[in-house]
Amino acid sequence: MALRGWVRIRDRVRGLARQLAGTLKPSVSEREMDEEVAFHIDMEAERLLREGVPPAEARRRAFVAFGGVERYQQQVRETRWTWTFVEGWRDARHAFGSLLRRPVFALTAAGTTAVAIGTATTFFSVLEAVVLRPLPVPDPERLVGIEILTTSGDRISVVSLPDYRDYRDQAEGVVALAAYHLADVTLYADDGAAAATLGFEVSSSYFDVLGVRPAVGRFFAGPEADAPGAPAEAVLGHDLWVARFGGDPSVVGKTVRLNGHELTVVGIAPEGFQGVLLGVRPAVYVPLGLHPRLQGAEVEDRTSREWLRLLGRLRPGVSREQAEAALEVVAARLVAAYDYREQVEPRALVVEALSPLPPRARDTAARFVSVLLGAAIALLLVAVVNVAGMLLARSAERAREIAVRLALGAGRGRVAGQLLVEGLVLGLLAGAGGAAVALVGVRLVQAVEPPGAPGFYIDLRVHGVVLAFASACALLCSLMFGLIPAVHATRSDLAGVLRRATGGRSVSRARSTLVGSQVALTLVLLVSTGLLVRTLRNALTVEHGFDPHGVVLAEMNLRLSGYDEPRGRAFYETLLERLRASPAVASAGLSTSYPLGVSWDQTRVVVAGLEPSDPAGWPVGWAAVSDGYFETLGLRLRSGAAPDARTPPLRIVVNDELVERFWRGQAPLGRGMRFGDQDAEVVGVAPSGRYRSLAEEPRMFAWVPLEHSYTPALYVHVRPRGAPGDAMAELRRAVASLDPQVPIINLTTLEEAMGQSMFLQRIAASLVGAFGFVGLLLSGTGILGLLAYVVEARRREIGIRMAVGASGPAVIRSVVGRGMRPVLLGLGAGLVVAVAAAGALESLLYDVAPRDPLSFGSAALLLLGAAALAAWIPARRAARTDPAATLNAD
Amino acid sequence: MSEKSAAEALRGTLDLLILKTLSMGAMHGWGATQRIRQHSEGLLEVNQGSLYPALQRLEGKGLVVSEWRTSENNRRARYYLLTESGREAIAAEEASWRRHVHGVSLVLGAT
Predict the structure, then answer these.
(1) Residue where one domain finishes, among candidates A735, A751, A767
(2) What angle in degrees, to the nearest 10, is found between the helix axes of A808-841 and A359-397?
(3) Is there a single domain that holds both residue A673 and residue A813?
(4) Integer CA distances (angstroms), A749 to A548, A553, A679, A716, in order
(5) Which of residues 363-382 of A touch B (CB under 8 A)?
(6) Same domain membership, residue A885 and residue A773
(7) Domain identity same for A322 and A187
(8) In the A/B pair of chains, how many CB contacts fall below 8 A?
(9) Statement to judge: residues A165 and A308 lie in one domain
């Protein structure tokens, strides 16, 4: 039985293959068909001859008996299963040819659609890279990230090195653990110049747990790499290896200089592997054990220095819950044995699927990209509708041809099929163009560097899912392009068309619907733009409590150059002196952060007699500042003086908000509090500002003297006497004269740096705005096209009306009114959609209600104005109609 | 019976006739029409217009294959041969045809 089944399949496949061959080699199969027919007719004629029919008559009768030779051949062809394709191919060639004959139409239609598809695909590729793509390692679904819920109720993602070792060893049967730390490193080029880069300090298990194999050489071996005294080795990232060493395998075994130390390169990470943090492209990996030497920090202290992130691979058959339980057992042992601070004491562990972005950042990114993707899709729809309108107009022109073909017996399916194929050809052209546009778009997006993340890198690719997305867009366009005219054309009735009633009414109704939907989509884009632009304006005019104008900002980190604390203090001290001595500089100061910047500090404050919101104390943001800082920022104290170095207690400046909460209506100066683990006294009060984001709730803040909390990473603030450029040059000179090996990580102006907190909004506003503008243009041309068509179709009627006395303005009013009807309907629908879209935008807005009447109103007005203008052009032409000429035309 | 299935029934009959004819040995298209005419004693005349499309269809289904051979009068002609599947199909088609005829004659004889 099985054998027989196989035989049947074999015969079937052979049969199909023969017909396919016949289709692919039409010359051979046509010749054979001719031969077969000739043979048949000859045989028939011979038979008739034998029956006594005269030769000429016999041939004639044989021919007649056979029937039409051409019809027979056609029937044979149509019997083949491949016929649909032959027909489709012919339609496609025909469609392609007719597009080539109308190059302007083809370019506009395929071009606008391609740009729109490309734009949408670009944003989709970002979404793919940020949200959808799994890590490029084997079995990424078995990988987990581990975080800690602390006794103080915080969720932290770092542990100390001794804790890591205990978790790793005691939970070994359940989950294989690795630890890593993102470190600023300075890799020195051969010419000695410093290049600040990103590196990962990783445990020896890191690559094993991820399942990554080296491209060249080996990774770090054995437990000694995890302990102080680790061998001085480094693994290079693949991209750095290619960029700086030309991908030369002999680099392995050579030494590189990193943070002032010589390290031997032992291996190269594989291509495409960028570690496990999104946006970070590690240039180099070094063993955890080198941390004390490279960063000058102690690592064996269990309870005061948490710095390692954990990741793990679940052992086969182990669930996340089981791993969580096992790790919590270890945590309980640790808590029993050691004395942790509340803020880091593990109360519970959270084991989650390893994500290259922290969940909240991932949500923000996903929401932001979705807004852009949504806008791009809206634009795509506007563009597609535009092209569909053009095609509809074309199909109306062809209505006669189509009606005649239908009347002559062409199946409706056949005619519709041909129109569908035309749509498909156009859609596929647009899709291919769109993929090309996306390749460029992806480059542009990659060139954008978010603030505070120098070297930020996302590996965007136009592949797999992304290409599938582009294809889906292209297919959707094809369907719209094909279906709208097809449905329309095959419904047309012959008698009507031939009577030259042209079916104009139904075409213009269909086009009105298209125009209405264009208007609706464009309104959504314009409203979103309005909301984002208002947000940016509000951000510019916000009251900061100081004057950022002109202030120069330099980000520095002496740890990268191997400075210890005494040398670091001396460096910054001398730097300030040199700057202040320069004629280009009015004043200069240092701070651990800058307003609206990317890094902040927060501590807990306890005030005697007040019950804090949290047992650990009130959360208060703080920055350590040098003398000259307030002056440089133009921050005027309400009362008191700048923080000063005399101690104890710590003499600090606090903001209005803190005074308001703790000592409303009382004199704040001289009051005491517990500030972290020190006693502090208020010596000055400054106006409240915004510290992390413009959208934040008022926040308590304090400034402490830098002398009591040294850190090697500081921001140098300089208020220039003249042009900021001179002060920047002076700053560069001063740093270089002190130590040419110290890099300035980022040199900019404070305004610029603060403006970057509006980075996402600015990108969104400019992109959505551009989309809105294009949408406006497309809607305008849509209205124009519709009315030009209506005017053409009603030429006779208009002529008659003018002949019986209608005035030009009356005609203009009537035509414009006809055009504004779909616009008003579209506006109505658009307002509803825009309200929903504005809700999705809300997280990006600042000080603007999502239903901001100004944004809605101005968008609607702009659109109405553009629509009226577009309607006026054909209307004026209609008014110039010469009644006599029109009436004579028929 | 709808129009379509009637056409299909007719087509099925033609297919069966052709397959049966070919089961007597490979034959070219013209020969097949002659054989059908002879065996039906002139009652059945197969129209060329349906014969060749039918042969194409059967070839597509893998029931027959064609090859070029030299004919009895020394000319190149396209001969059609049954495949193994074709041979099997005859039995099935024949049975279904007989059932059909039996059914029809039962109905006709009912009154």
Answers:
(1) A751
(2) 160
(3) no
(4) 9, 5, 35, 11
(5) none
(6) yes
(7) yes
(8) 86
(9) yes
Nearest chain A residue (CA) to B87: A8
Nearest CA to CA, how far is A31 from chain B (Å)? 12
Residue A349 lies in a domain: yes
What pLDDT does residue B3 have? 41
A79 contact B CB<8A: yes
A289's CB contacts (< 8 A; 6+ apart) are: A224, A225, A226, A227, A228, A229, A230
How many angstroms away from the CA of B28 is the closest CA of chain A?
Answer: 9
In terms of residue numbers, what domain contains A350?
A: 140-355
- Gap from A85 CA to chain B (nearest CA, Å): 15
Q: Which tokens is A13 given? A: 């496949």
> How far is it, in rounded angstroms, from Cα B17 to Cα A762?
78
Domain end among A710, A733, A751:
A751
The contact set of B with A (CB < 8 A) is: 28-31, 34, 47-49, 52-54, 56-57, 59-63, 65-66, 68, 71, 73, 75-78, 83-86, 88
The total domain count for chain B is 1
- For chain A, what is the largest distance between any 2 Cα atoms, rounded to a whole number of angstroms? 137
Which of A457, A66, A530 lies closest to A277, judged by CA? A457
**Other beta carbons within 10 Å of A677:** 8
Judge if ipTM > 0.90: no
Q: Are residues A69 and A181 in the same domain?
A: no
Task: Return d(Cα A563, Cα A728) in angstroms, integer.
Answer: 23
| Sign of the torsion angle spanned by Cα atoms A568, A569, A571, A576 | positive
Same domain, A717 and A588: yes
Q: Which residues of A touch B32 (CB under 8 A)?
A: none
Please tell me whether the peptide bond between A648 and the residue prior to it is cis, using omega within 30 degrees of 0: yes
| Nearest of A294, A702, A756 to residue A555 by alpha carbon | A756
Nearest to A75 among B53, B61, B84 (CB): B53
Partner-chain contact A8 B48, CB within 8 Å: no
> Number of folded domains in chain A?
4
Tokens of A125: 């590729």
Question: What range does the domain containing B41 cover?
Answer: 3-108
Q: CA A346 from chain center: how many Å? A: 36
* Mean pLDDT in order along chain A per 10 residues (890 residues): 75 82 76 84 88 87 76 70 72 77 82 90 86 84 91 82 93 93 76 69 93 92 83 90 87 86 92 82 89 80 82 94 94 92 86 79 78 88 86 72 68 73 88 92 80 68 88 91 76 54 63 86 89 80 78 87 86 93 92 80 81 75 90 86 75 90 85 85 87 77 86 91 89 90 84 76 80 84 79 78 82 84 90 89 81 90 89 84 68
Q: Which residues 2-31 of A are in CB contact (within 8 Å) with B?
A: 4, 7-8, 10-16, 18-19
Q: Which of B31, B60, B78 sits opposite A80 (nearest CB)?
A: B60
B30: domain CATH number? 1.10.10.10
CA distances from A189 to A234, A245, B2 (A): 15, 11, 85
Closest Cβ–Cβ partner in B30, B71, B78 for A32: B78
Distance from CA of A411 to the nearest CA of B (A): 16
Kindly state whether A50 is in contact with chain B, defined as any CB-CB distance less than 8 angstroms. no
Global pTM reads 0.65
Which residues in chain B have their CB less than 8 angstroms from residue A72's CB? 48-49, 52
Say whether both A336 and A449 belong to one domain.
no
Same domain flag for A769 and A737 = no
**DSSP characters for A93-106?**
HHHHHHHHHSHHHH
Has residue A621 been placed in a domain? yes
Residue A498 near residue A403, CB atoms below 8 Å: yes
